[in-house]
Amino acid sequence: MIIEDILDDWDSQSSHVDSCDVTNAYLNADCREKIWVQIGPEFGEDEGLVMIIKKAVYGLKSSGASWRNMISQTMKDARYKNTYVDPDVWR
Questions:
Q1: CA proximity to 20, closest of 65, 84, 74, 85
Q2: Taken in order 36, 70, 89, 2, is the CA torsion positive or negative?
Q3: What is the pLDDT of residues 4-45, one digit of tens each?
Q4: Whole-structure pTM value
């Protein structure tokens, strides 16, 4: 996973990071529900096929929680600890 690689680089270089932003963050987390969609014309010959969404996407109510759970577990696995006052701040 890319996030784990970045954390390893920061840790090995003894770098200090105040904050970071993850582009398309929700797409890194798995979707918790089975959501079926019929794909549109932008998929060419596959238009009309029915598929299951596997990754969390913007607009789903559970996407934020899926992302937070995934990043929280990744940070814990990398031996970071969240603060008592704000559980989304890590040290």
A1: 74
A2: negative
A3: 666 666 556 666 666 666 666 666 677 777 888 899 999 999
A4: 0.56
What DSSP string runs through the chain? Answer: -HHHHHHHHHHHTT---S----TTGGGGSEEEEEEEEE--GGGGGGTT-EEEEEE--TT-TTHHHHHHHHHHHHHHHTT--B-SS-TT-B-
Pairing between β-strand 30-38 and β-strand 50-55 as defined by DSSP bridges: antiparallel
User: Exposed (0-12), middle (13-18) or buried (19+): which is 66, by Cβ within 10 Å?
Assistant: buried
6's CB contacts (< 8 A; 6+ apart) are 20
